[in-house]
Fold this protein.
Amino acid sequence: MVASDQHAIHAAFKLSRSHASGEPFTLDVDIQLPSSGVTAVFGHSGSGKTTFLRCVAGLERAQAGQLTVQGEVWQKENCHVPTHQRPIGYVFQEASLFEHLTGMGNLAFAMKRAPTPTSDEGLQQIIELMGIESVLTRLPKHMSGGERQRVAIARALLIQPRLLLMDEPLASLDHQRKQEILPYLARLRASLKIPILYVSHSVDEIAQLADHVVVLEQGTVVAQGDIGEVFARTDVNALSGFDTGAVWQGKSVARDEQWHLVKVSFQQTELWVRDTGEALGSSIRVRILARDVSLARTALDETSILNRMPATITDICPDRDEAMILVRLDCGEEVLIARLTKRSLDKMALQVGQEVWAQIKSVAIVR
Amino acid sequence: MFTAADLDAIWLTLRLASIVTVLLLIVGTPIAWWLARTQSWLKGPVGAIVALPLVLPPTVLGFYMLVAMGPNGAIGQFTQALGIGLLPFSFWGLVIASVVYSLPFVVQPIQNAMQALGERPLEAAATLRVGPWERFFCVVLPLSKPGFITAAILGFAHTVGEFGVVLMIGGNIPQQTRVVSVQIYDYVEAMEYGQAHLLAGLMVAFSFVVLLGVYGFQRQGSNSMLGVK
């Protein structure tokens, strides 16, 4: 789909080895990535997502592989550009700051080695973007985990990468710290023009940050595409479960002052969501969790549910939970997923092709 | 108080220990780096050879050094070919023997510090455009600093405290090889206990202060770098 884009990234790696436990592991991927926006590489632990990222960085060498980034060959047959010659920025899972340097020292370490000098304003901008002004004089051991990670991200930006690689940058942080950093990442994604490869096993983070998703399972790609497309699939095992849910991208079109609601328009449907103060006309991404969608045979008028719409059942798939089932629905151009008990499915005698009413109990605005 | 001969011995000891420490840091660093990083099967044997002086009697080490540096030994042949002559019973012979003798005290703390770094700082540096050599000098060396400080102190102190190797290699030549420990031995032999007390007391005080310094430094640096015994 982006094969013709000469600025895109083409990564194909074949690598096999055995884990410390003796279990064999094989990574076999061939991925085309778009040249802008955030591409999330999603998978559970052991799926090979970090190995994939390390291959892109050159920190690990696949036995066979080909890597072309924006027209430049980084790996091909016997040629393997070493990591320090690749124009990348890398954010590791746990803070990788140099312990002997202060926050500023760490930033200066990158600036000294960047291809062009960083202007004072440029530096100031990044410091503000990451909110690290107050920790720059401290040594890493005197920073919190979240602060260290933000300095590490700033450092990765100051090397002036053409491709930013992030390996679960939030995974080592507790929930509160995650919430502290996520807004910075969202701002980062809005202000950066370079492509970002973001490895994560958190559906939440991806729903919030990614434009494009690659799903890895046991070293192979099981799904890839636009986030809306991939999250609408019910056949991707790694994505099914408690957090399953569709991601819709729309625009706010009207505001209801009295009830503090905003109407968001999608391709063929509309939803009322909580007013978060965004200007009308701004683009809004929502996530509708499958567990928040219920089905009815007729339009019920006396209900507390604000958003409901007619839909057609297009697929019924098993869930990882024995008692549950995933129902895929078409609402015009948009796809919804509903998670029901098998018993409800049986009681309502739902079948593929049937027309139903989808009731959406809650809509999360992710961006 | 200290006689002129005592002062000569003290000065000689300090000079010897200083030169040996500098040489040890130069020789020990690459060995420590290699031992810290290698996957080779040679790691075990090389590590054991470096550690041998910890367990061997100094006389054994001194004996082999004496043979090697002698007219028919490998080192002796080499130094003769260079026109330096023979090293035994000279200051530089003592320096070389001391470097071998104190090697583990320098290599092991540095090796431990380097091993404790792990892969991560090196990988982070690589992603920041730092080539292999610069990575060593700009990342590994500064991050291993506590190990180097411990190594330098232990190397220096251990050289000051050696005796057996000096006797085997250096003999007892004033201003050449007669270090403090040998001077004390001479006093005891000659039953001059007063002078022996003076120098022995000095050595006890010196050693105590050095060890106090090392332990204090390590507590400050929180992670233990003292990899020796």
